[in-house]
Write a sequence for this structure.
């Protein structure tokens, strides 16, 4: 599954449409790339509710409902922040599924986290959802593109109840051996 060719987004959307479900995205480091990837697929409007580009901490807190104390203590690059972003966008936009990306694309470390540290999260109608920490190599563009691919793999895995996309997500987590 590649974010560059849209295959991941097309597969995710096919599963969502088949189940009559919707998705919304909350993005920080990807700055709208997840939404762009999803909406590039013809017929995306059947399942895509919308997205929030929450680059600033205040937007994460005030729009998506991420706990302000959590942000102050841990910074934006954190597993629980990603989880709360996914839950928040799901509730805000009335979607069945919420996805989120937060991390450091570079060129400098942020919140004490190295460039390439990324968290992707999925929140769905059943249970707490899933979060994956990624350690990615490459430049800013590569880190952002791989983050898009990783969140789509994670969503596909969650949609399939853990049966589909698992190997791809695992590979992504350890990209570059970091």
């Amino acid at each position: 599954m590649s974010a560059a060719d849209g295959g991941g987004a097309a597969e995710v959307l096919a599963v969502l449409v088949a189940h009559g479900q919707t998705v919304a995205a909350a993005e920080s480091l990807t700055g709208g790339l997840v939404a762009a990837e999803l909406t590039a697929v013809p017929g995306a409007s059947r399942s895509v509710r919308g997205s929030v580009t929450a680059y600033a901490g205040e937007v994460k807190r005030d729009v998506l409902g991420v706990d302000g104390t959590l942000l102050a203590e841990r910074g934006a690059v954190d597993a629980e922040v990603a989880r709360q972003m996914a839950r928040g966008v799901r509730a805000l936009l009335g979607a069945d599924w919420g996805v989120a990306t937060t991390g450091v694309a570079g060129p400098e470390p942020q919140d004490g986290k190295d460039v390439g540290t990324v968290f992707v999260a999925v929140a769905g109608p059943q249970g707490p959802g899933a979060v994956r920490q990624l350690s990615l190599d490459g430049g800013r563009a590569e880190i952002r593109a791989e983050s898009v691919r990783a969140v789509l793999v994670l969503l596909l895995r969650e949609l399939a109840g853990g049966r589909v996309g698992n190997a791809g997500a695992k590979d992504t987590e350890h990209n570059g051996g970091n």
The chain has one domain: 7-177. The radius of gyration is 15 Å.
